Amino acid sequence: MTRSIDRDNQRFKEIVRGKVRQGLKKYITHGEILGRKGRETVSIPVPNIEIPHFRHGQKGSGGVGQGEGDPGQPIGKGEDDGDGQGQPGDQKGQHIREAELTIEELAQMLGDELQLPAIKPKGQDTIKAVKTKYNSIRQTGPDSLRHFKRTYKRALRRLISSSEYDPSRPIVVPTREDERFRSWTEVPLPHANAAVIYIMDVSGSMTDDQKEIVRTESFWIDTWLKSQYDGLQRRYIVHDAVAHEVDEDTFYRVRESGGTRISSAYVECKKIIERDFPPADWNIYIFQFSDGDNWGEDNNSCLKILQDDFLTICNLFCYGQVESPYGSGDYIRELRKFVDNYENLILSHIKDKDGIYESIRTFLGKGK
Fold first, then answer.
1. CATH, domain 193-364, list 3.40.50.410, 3.10.270.10, 3.30.565.10, 3.40.630.30
2. What is the pLDDT of residue 238?
3. Measured on CA atoms in the order 339, 329, 305, 127, is the torsion positive or negative?
4. Which of 52, 75, 132, 291 is the most exposed place for a label (fewest CB within 10 A)?
5. Distance CA 81, CA 78 (A)
6. Parallel, antiparallel or unpaired: strands 233-239 and 194-201
7. Is residue 217 within 8 Å of residue 362, measured between CB atoms?
């Protein structure tokens, strides 16, 4: 039986989550969550919600309950009895509450708010996993799998049918023929493997603001994909004129500078796919972020690798171009020349932090 206080507590949690949903776009676009990420949960600052309660005044202070009162008259201390320090003000204070939510809850909120469809894995990338289910009974087996209740019932039924059961001395001793054991069957289950590779330009033309946009959007994309696949595998590449595979922590913290050669990142990405993720067994997602600046003669090499090696095997190749005061922005113009020829090539122009929200919808809105 559910207690009233438990129902009230659950209702309060729903109200808090409602506040998070209302401000979800702000949290997405301004990175409020990224720095607060824990192992399983995330702490989000939300406006405090005041719970109705009684405030008792000092004894003999008057008020309703000790004589006549007027409608709306407060109970307890008067306005002159404040105990704060300093000069009085006329503005309401700021109250913040930390709301604890799981990553799964955030992914669901993100999907609901952006109306993201569930991802449909590629058919050829579905491999079979085997799950053991104890769903039957047999007459032989190890003692560890003996089914006590069924064994006892068989023995009791045998004693009663043979008139050997004495209710005044209800001793039941199973024989070998009475014993029953739990048994199992192996059920093949479809198991979709997914790999996501993040590529970030960290050259000198990418300012800290642009890099923060990339990291924030990558976090939310990661949150959604993890809700769609079990055991999501992730790889991270950063590049200027030279590309490096890095771990997650380095990807979210690295600060570099230098020239830009996008093809170096593509070559590194191709190595990772060949080494770790055979396209026949994996759903592959590549998310590339840059300011569009690239060494001029390098564009042709990039486009060839993209069309020959990535777009033929990827569920999605998503290119997000962040606007930078130093980058040329040419690369997205090159991609737009043939984007209509590939359904799995998605382009997004991200002007500032407020553009992250729509960029995520653009990348994931097709459910591929």
1. 3.40.50.410
2. 94
3. negative
4. 52
5. 6
6. parallel
7. no
The C-alpha atoms of residue 261 and residue 146 are separated, in whole angstroms, by: 66
204-213 pLDDT, tens digit per residue, is 888 888 888 9
Query: What pTM, to 2 d.p., does this model score?
Result: 0.62
Which residues does 363 contact at the CB level (< 8 Å), separation at least 6?
A: 221, 287, 316, 318, 320, 346, 348
Check residues 271 and 20 and name the one with the higher pLDDT. 271
For 101, the token pair is 């939510």
What is the distance between the alpha carbons of residues 62 and 289, in angstroms, rounded to a whole number?
67
Q: 43 is written with which tokens?
A: 């702490």
Residues ≥6 apart with Cβ < 8 Å to 286 = 196, 197, 199, 269, 310, 314, 316, 317, 318
HSE-up of 7 (CA within 13 Å, CB side)? 4
Tell me the β-bridge partners of 345: 317
Strands (E), the chain: 41-47, 96-102, 126-138, 181-192, 194-201, 233-239, 243-246, 283-290, 316-322, 345-350
Enter the DSSP assignment of 146: B
Which residue intervals of the chain bear CATH 3.40.50.410? 193-364
Structure tokens at 117: 């469809």
Please determine, for residue 357, whether its predicted confidence score (pLDDT) is greater than 60: yes
| Residue 170 confidence class, pLDDT cut points 50, 70, 90 | confident
- Residue 284 contacts residue 229 (beta carbons within 8 Å): no
